[in-house]
Fold:
Amino acid sequence: MARKKALIDAAIDRADQEKGLLLVLTGNGKGKSSSAFGMAARAVGHGMKVGVAQFIKGRTDTGEEAFFRRCPEIEWHVLGEGFTWDTQDRERDIAKAREGWEVARRMLSDASFNLVILDELTYTMNYGYLDSDRVMADIAARPHGQHVVVTGRAASDALIAAADTVTEMADVKHAWRAGIKAQPGIDL
Ligand code: ATP
Ligand code: MG
Structure:
């Protein structure tokens, strides 16, 4: 145990670098967006400024949005209109995603944002709504100390390669499959 503690202490001493991180929260299990918004709460607690860009989903009735809209430290943008199988209009989805990316890019080029959350961004890249190289270049060009969190299923190899921390949520069980509808406070 003493030897293990010495090794861990040495590793903690070595972890002395500071930089803006890129985190990716992916996988089919529940917990990606709620983890990202948990980090938003942490950041606000430290007096940091946070930007949120929600892609794909058009809903503006989520608990986290209602809560964080009360915080002057957070700028919150809902940029989607729903999934493509709802809108059935790929051209419109593409236009909406590109418009949304301009909003995200503004936050990614503004050093006053300490944390930028790009919620459900993976879909816009995987469906080809946004050019992956361009998205990766804009993320890479952000201010040195700025943290970025990307959420969404099936994160691309490019995102995973560029990220500092990647977590894959595993879908072990979900209440929805037992016929339980989305619950306020838990699912939205
Ligand atoms: P959350 O917002 O709860 O952290 P998430 O961001 O990981 O979830 P999304 O794919 O964005 O997951 O879907 C959000 C909604 O879908 C939530 O209501 C969530 O409970 C539900 N959901 C997430 N994963 C699953 C799943 N594997 N099966 C059924 N519903 C799911
Ligand atoms: Mg989500």
